[in-house]
Amino acid sequence: MSTTSMKKYIFIVLLLLIASGLTHASTTDGTIAFDYPDAPHAKFQFHFTRELIALAGTTAPFNTVSDIYFRTYDAEAGIFDRFVQYYGETLKAKNWQSLQEDNGVHLYVLEGSSAQNSQSDKAISGIFAVVESDSDVYLLNIVGNIPPQQIRQLLTNLGQIGIEISALKSLEAQMFQRFEKPPKPMSAPTLLRTTGKQPDFFRVAFSTKKEPSRFGFSFSRSHNATRHGQWRYYGHPIEQIQIRSDSKERIAQISQALEKGSTDIEAVIESLPSVNTSGYKKKLIVHTSERLAMISVGHIPDHKNEPFMLAKRFRTSEGEPIHEIRIRGHQDIHLKDVRKALEKGPEDIEKAIGALPSEISGLEAARLRIEGEGAQRTAIVTIVEQPLPSRFYFDRSPWIGFNRVTGWELGARIDSGFRKGKRPNTSYNISVPSEFRGDMLSKFFGRVGYGFGNKQFYYRVGSRVTWGEPDSWYLGLTLQYYRATSVIAPELFPFYDDTDMTILRVLGMPDHQNYYLREGDEVALQWRPIRQRHSFKLARLAESHDSLQKSTDWHFFNWRSKSEVRENPAVTPGRMRSFLFKYDYSTRHNFLGWHNTFFVEHSDTAIGSDFDFTRYQLHLRYAHPVGRHQIRTRAVGSFSTAPLPIQRQFIIGGPGLLNGYPLYAFAGDRGFLFNIEYLFHLPALPNWKNVLEFSDVPLFLVLFLDAGQAWNASEEKYVFEPKSNAGIGLQLGETDFILRFNVSKAFEADQGIRFNTAWFYSF
After folding, report:
1. 77, 215, 301, 570: which could form a disulfide with 547 (CB 3.0–4.6 Å)?
2. What is the structure's pLDDT at 695?
């Protein structure tokens, strides 16, 4: 060692010895006094000033430190725990943040504004540590203007100034990730989604099948888990990851990779082993605006309208990112062909969409509209397909129905006409969600069936002429003749008239409908403008009405009809000649948004009707998300100028209307109804998402309040006496199919507690 180096070393030692006798005073915001009462005598105590640190010849990160206070104690019994409790309470009371409080290291920091940077940039003005290591207990207080990303480097390199604490040299980098300055997020790859209709709810969709069947129940051998934490995707923060797989072991493997692996989600996906079998996939979907990612791994089917992550980022001609592309109007053209063409084309969305007709066979044109919601930009692409060489089609399939009036109803349906694209669905459905498919086609249609319960034939035949463009505008004129069962108050019992309910009735679910017979004809004009939020219908009815009686008590769990189902009440028979005008406004998506209806029906003896009335009804429905919760409201007002036949009366009572009262408890010519529900999203219980193999099915606690009244036009004086109730429910699901259990109590002493079940949203 040279003479100069020896002198410098001796000088540092002398200064350290002098500093060892200094007391620890609170002089800055980051300074904490070593003032634990009755503390044992310290083996060593040092105060490193800025001058001493600089004299040691150190550079970053020590050049940001003004003072270091350090004491060492023998690890006598209980001293570490007493220090931890005392200084932990002191620091937290002064708004210090805890970084670690285990494994013999309790570490705290105090954030402050950096003098070198703007006020929004934070620096660390104080670091405090209580450490038990190598049979000693250490107190450490570092004061300065320290960049957050240098904390770990500072603590692990204290040996450069003579402080040796082995426990601090092995601090994990993950502890300091919150202080790392994240890179500026890049534009994430664009999502591609279709808005086309999906197969009906009831279908067989086993996870090992390439193409799901189009009828039956939907089964999914998938397991689910949700993880919360801090990850990144192209620099965007991700706080929640939903995992889906056909294997619980694979979910555990993904969870472990997320917890202990890289914080970059793509790197985690790449680290997962692949399986070289048909149908196996590793799929990542990221919604950066929601800080949500979804990982699907294994042999599992895609969700309804599930998007794809494209392999590139699209932008507008001005350079603004496109976050999502929605494809609509496609029938024969497959979405995978659109995806391939987009990934092959330019990043400019206008040029990419303009190039689609030249890249995809059978595509005549593609129209682009860009919608913006805040910072999110969505490209709406409407596909116009080329007319097929042979436009005429003839479609036929069997038809099956079941209810307590007709019993089993077996028959067939036909559909023929001139198509504008893909021919209507020819799948062999035992239930069809609309009376006939292809509503926007000019066609002939028909259905004939025989009710084995009441031994009667039923039919519906007609034709429709349409004008317009798919996903643009539509005008249709329909003429039909029929002898068919219909339901009372379909506007107040939505979905219950849907023939998808056939399977539920067969399985013994309570039938909420009351039926009557309609026989006659209808002429209707329907119009829907380009925005597709509005629709209008003007119809003329010429039909006769008659009552129907219950013909069977059978259902799947009542083989010998030991129990009886509810009777079907009578209606007012007679000839109905009326004109109907109906207007609908809907912004609904996934059962959220507005859906309002106004209709007027006028019947007059002057045109051959047995009934003389004009009735009006306004139906307002609104469902709004509140985070993961929902608020749903409905208000209905109905008015008639004269007494109504039973089948046209305003009816309330029962599930979805007045839950605390019996089904159809109140009826009249006039009335009103008000419902409000709050759906509280419940956190997933342990193993809940694997119950019955359901896939991603949320659970809600529902609080609801109902009020309504019905009265007759013949009453001399109206008295405001609404019936009301409150209740609580449990709901499984939130979109196409729900399962809901309600418990409600009317605000009347003579009404007991009622229990009911529902399978679809009532409004």
Report:
1. 570
2. 47
